[in-house]
């Protein structure tokens, strides 16, 4: 009975993962790279809200100066962020051939989204046809930028597919494995069945003429969800790219890792809460069972170890890794999968979910908030 239960659990897990992989591949087949990947001069204003504190900040900003050369860069720094201002000015001096505007922003008032506050403050500077909003820890390859620019011209918004570089230390590795385990299946697997319900707030392109939309959602903490809803309410649509961007975040320690995962899960719960019941059920069916099944399999294996159970477990783990590696090779054009860290990251997910359900306080961009809804939160300093 134990062997049968364990084998069935492995089969259900692999069927869910494999099914989502097939759906993602079906969507990707409909989303090939266009033949024309040109990105004309000054097509994009690359708006980046800069906040120092990450050791990779300078390298990531510089990587986009190289990959998106010829575009207009708008760097949004807090007036009190001396280190961020120093890095920005060093890069401006090092790349005089690039058009880089350093916008020094005043302190964000309470009850406002600090990232959106910077974007609203700098909206008059967005004078190219399109605006690329790109997090300061994110690198966008030129081909991916060209795809987003092409589709933003016909949709309300075009958004990227995140992948993470493996950082140094276990906390950074766990964060990267969480994203790389789930990015493709989370963002793409529902798209053959449903239109996109939100965007990836780390990387998206909109028309500059629509940048005024930021002012209408500045009171929302979950800017990606709020922006997606505003775009759809205005009659626009979301294009979800199957082509990657690359994120590099150095996670200082386990406490930093816990804060980031807590914020992401809390925002995901707010997103899920806004969906119709049918969408909620489908999302929970496709994305809510993997870590629970993995815990069940681990408990069974520890409670009744046997040679036959070990053989099935090895086959199961090998197939799990093979599916993830295949997806990462296909979509990211590299394989950041790490066997042990990937498993540990997935086993930790129920704890992060429980943390998000029980604790409504988050630490984000140097501020603490108590969150009730996307548009209902208060500073908790």
Unreliable stretches (pLDDT < 50, length at least 5) are: none
* Counted beta strands: 11
**Fraction of residues in helix:** 40-55%
Distance between the termini: 54 Å
What fraction strand? 15-25%
Counting DSSP H or I runs of 4 or more residues, the number of helices is 13
Biggest sheet architecture = 8 strands, mixed
What's the rounded overall pLDDT mean?
90
Write down the Rg: 21 Å
| Strand neighbour order, sheet with most strands | 3-2-1-4-7-6-8-5
Secondary structural class: alpha/beta
The string of secondary-structure elements, in order, is HEHEHEHEEHEHEHHEHHHHHEEE
By oligomeric state, this entry counts as: single chain
Shape summary: globular
What key attributes describe this structure?
single chain, 381 residues, alpha/beta, eight-stranded mixed sheet, three-stranded antiparallel sheet, 52% helix
What do these coordinates show?
- The strands form two sheets. Strands 3-2-1-4-7-6-8-5 form an eight-stranded mixed β-sheet, with helices on both faces. A three-stranded antiparallel β-sheet has the order 9-10-11, with helices on one face.
- It has 13 helices and eleven strands.
- The termini are far apart.
- The protein is of the alpha/beta class and 381 residues long.
Sequence-ordered SSE layout with sheet pairings:
Blueprint: H1 2-29, E1 44-50, H2 57-67, E2 72-78, H3 82-94, E3 99-105, H4 114-122, E4 130-134, E5 138-139, H5 142-152, E6 157-164, H6 170-188, E7 203-207, H7 213-216, H8 223-233, E8 238-247, H9 254-273, H10 277-287, H11 290-303, H12 307-332, H13 339-358, E9 361-364, E10 367-373, E11 376-379
Parallel strand pairs: 1-2, 1-4, 2-3, 6-8
Antiparallel strand pairs: 4-7, 5-8, 6-7, 9-10, 10-11
Helix pairs in contact: 1-6, 1-11, 1-12, 6-9, 6-13, 9-13, 11-13
């Amino acid at each position: 009975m134990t062997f049968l239960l364990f084998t069935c659990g492995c089969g259900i897990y692999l069927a869910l993962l494999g099914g989502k992989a097939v759906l993602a591949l079906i969507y990707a087949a409909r989303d090939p790279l266009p033949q024309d990947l040109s990105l004309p001069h000054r097509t994009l204003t690359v708006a980046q809200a800069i906040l120092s504190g990450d050791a990779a900040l300078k390298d990531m900003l510089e990587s986009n100066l190289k990959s998106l050369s010829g575009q207009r860069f708008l760097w949004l720094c807090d007036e009190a962020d001396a280190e961020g201002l120093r890095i920005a000015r060093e890069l401006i001096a090092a790349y005089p051939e690039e058009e880089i505007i350093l916008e020094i922003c005043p302190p964000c008032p309470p009850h406002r989204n600090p990232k959106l506050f910077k974007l609203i403050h700098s909206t008059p500077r967005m004078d190219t046809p399109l605006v690329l909003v790109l997090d300061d820890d994110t690198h966008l390859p030129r081909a991916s930028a060209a795809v987003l620019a092409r589709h933003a011209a016909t949709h309300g918004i075009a958004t990227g597919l995140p992948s993470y570089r493996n950082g140094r230390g276990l906390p950074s590795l766990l964060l990267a494995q969480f994203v790389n385990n789930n990015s493709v299946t989370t963002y793409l697997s529902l798209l053959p069945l449903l239109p996109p319900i939100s965007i990836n707030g780390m990387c998206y392109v909109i028309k500059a003429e629509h940048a005024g939309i930021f002012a209408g959602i500045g009171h929302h903490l979950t800017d990606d969800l709020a922006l997606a809803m505003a775009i759809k309410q205005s009659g626009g649509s979301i294009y979800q790219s199957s082509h990657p961007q690359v994120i590099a975040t150095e996670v200082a320690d386990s406490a930093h890792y816990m804060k980031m995962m807590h914020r992401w899960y809390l925002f995901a719960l707010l997103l899920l809460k806004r969906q119709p019941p049918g969408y909620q059920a489908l999302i929970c069916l496709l994305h809510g069972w993997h870590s629970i099944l993995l815990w069940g399999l681990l408990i069974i294996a520890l409670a009744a170890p046997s040679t036959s159970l070990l053989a099935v477990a090895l086959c199961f783990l090998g197939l799990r890794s093979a599916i993830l590696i295949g997806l990462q090779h296909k979509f990211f054009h590299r394989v950041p999968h790490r066997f042990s860290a990937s498993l540990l990251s997935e086993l930790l997910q129920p704890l992060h979910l429980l943390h998000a359900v029980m604790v409504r306080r988050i630490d984000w961009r140097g501020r603490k908030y108590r969150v009730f809804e996307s548009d209902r939160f208060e500073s908790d300093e």
